[in-house]
Amino acid sequence: MEPQGKDPAGLLGGRLRQAAAIVLLLWAGAAFAWEGWAALTDWRRRGRFAATSFYWRFEVAETMALERCLGRAAQLMPVGCAVAVYDPTQDFFRWRWAAYLLPAYDVVISRDAERAGASFYVSLDQQPPRGQLLMTRPGCQVYRLR
Prior knowledge:
The protein is built from 4 helices and 5 strands, in the order ααβαβαβββ. By secondary structure, the protein is α/β, with parallel strands linked by helices. Helix content is 45%, strand content 16%. Strand 4 and strand 5 (140-144) form a beta hairpin. The protein has 2 domains: 1-49; 53-144, no CATH class. The chain has a 5-stranded mixed sheet, covered by helices on one side.
């Protein structure tokens, strides 16, 4: 016959379950606090963040500025000509955005301008090494190469 006292194995198992539940609850609370703090920090820095072209989306300031620039440039260039996007950093995504926004043109990256026979440079930031300036606006220049 068993004594009427508490079972030591059951008591240990119950305490172990309680300790595990407390540890999991503390871990979840710490993870929630960490994520909340990171979100608050990002929200505070939102005005100073300059996204690279990898993170560009439609209707953001960068793509809208690029679209305005390329729209003005398209008025100066004949349809179907090769256009080089002058970007010394050779940013692949900026070039792809330009190609998307100029579907009627053969858009190449500036390092391939000679091989592709590009007739125009569209520059967003800096002056290309050569070319005749056709149009200049803040953050947008168009140059004729030939």
